[in-house]
Request: fold
Amino acid sequence: MNKLNVAILGLGVVGGGTYDILQTNRDLITERTGCEIEVKRIFGRRHREDVPEELFTLNYDDILNDPEIDVVCETLGGIEPSRSFMLEAMKRGKHVVTANKAAVAAGWDELNDQAKANGVRFLYEASVCGGMPVLSAIRGNLSASRFLEVRGIINSTTNYILSKMAREGKSYEEALKDAQAMGTVERDPSSDVSGMDSANKLCILMSLLFGTHIPPEDIPRTGITELTKEDMAEAERNQQVIKLVAHGWLEDGELKCYVRPERIGRDDPLAMANDEKNALIVTSDMSGINMFYGNGAGPLVTGSAVAGDILSIALMGGK
Amino acid sequence: MNKLNVAILGLGVVGGGTYDILQTNRDLITERTGCEIEVKRIFGRRHREDVPEELFTLNYDDILNDPEIDVVCETLGGIEPSRSFMLEAMKRGKHVVTANKAAVAAGWDELNDQAKANGVRFLYEASVCGGMPVLSAIRGNLSASRFLEVRGIINSTTNYILSKMAREGKSYEEALKDAQAMGTVERDPSSDVSGMDSANKLCILMSLLFGTHIPPEDIPRTGITELTKEDMAEAERNQQVIKLVAHGWLEDGELKCYVRPERIGRDDPLAMANDEKNALIVTSDMSGINMFYGNGAGPLVTGSAVAGDILSIALMGGK
Reply:
């Protein structure tokens, strides 16, 4: 029986979900991969009584210096120290899995270069569209095609707010407040509502699809904070809905892109994505259009993508 | 530079599409995989002037006995001799890629066992839902989850006929004749319209999702041949559409399944799949629902899935 030892950095929403999946589905995962996946260390302060105390450490060197740890799973969020932690892990020959779109988008070149230089895998499926297997499809079975366009609704928080505004006739401020009261939206939603979170994800998508890394801050971007009840009502009168759309495409060989609220027709496939759902359409020369639709957020949902990346390392025998 | 030599069995619709993709996107594929993929032999009679004559052979031993051929790509269709050809190739240590749902469904156990025994890869993404990366998602990033249900429209021919009946008010016979005249439907559509093609695909999906192989002939199945104009009109009056639905799910630990025409509401996500489009919803304990929507048929579309499987072997260094 092979064994794969994992360290999780940050046992928050996504890290905690990942931990829970690896415990709950332990037998299933062992059966599918032929490999026992063990969480050996957790970077962070202990705040869950169901997780053994000896797993926790506040000293990252305990993880870096442990030769038995094969995979570092980064779910801290934010650019630093996440990026440095990932680079350090790679230098020690450890595979890296992350859910952190901001760090992946900001550190794209150095993270990929470092992984290549050290012969380790760098996987980040959970950084885009939660539990939807979008990036592994692009890197995997779709990769015989030349990609032409990507267009989607890739931020759950704003989609939840916009769905509430459309359905209940609320103002942006009211819908935001309701969503925060329900815990669906973070207390500081600025990265979501400004479109920055979508820009980070679009940056990652375009880097993979078109081989061009456009820093997220250079992607033309409009958030949803200026949308009014009247905007929503006007869209409704025209049989349309307003969605925060991320869009990247090749036009005469040039890569164009934006993140902005758009009125889309009810017959647009993206229009089916309401509340916390995401939808993404990838267009290529050979496979034509492929749409992915599913859950874009949540501890188990996003954790399932992190765990999926860990499994794919296990399936390659930890190599 | 690594090199991967491929033999294509049958240069028909799918085999021809695969060949074209490997030629057209040759540079892109080499860049993405770090590997040159070469079609070295083709099993069949030459019927395309743009394909070099020396590639063709009618003697399968020429392929089996060629130690330079790494991958056998089976696109002949039909259960035999395809199944035997694939088993023979595996015994010689060659990876096998196929688009052949009938042969995969019928030979599930022996094909997988033989691949395992010989340490070769057996990939069949193109056998289900054409260019949509459904199987590799199930085998890949979704695999940390326990699967609960699969439901979809997975046959393009019947979906085209039903869409035409619904849109143009035609009878089944009229819609079928029109589709055949346009070349969209094969001259002998019996496997499609009887639901057998969907049953083959559902068999493969359930084998992967639930680890249980139900032979396609044991899947309860109703085709579309008895549907009338009146059935379609009644569905329309109820804001519904009739689709040929393939469905497999766990109920109290027991696996249930069927293929049959169903009336589904216009707000059912599957209802968006019209004409040759396919849609498939996979539900699991952790990632929740994931829907895939795209092109279910066509030479380049299905060829892109075959080529995608070949690329994934190249990405693993041909190992």
About this structure: DSSP finds 13 helices and eleven strands in chain A. Residues 299-315 of chain A form the longest helix (17 residues). Chain A has a mean pLDDT of 96. The CA atoms of residues 110 and 268 of chain A lie 38 Å apart.
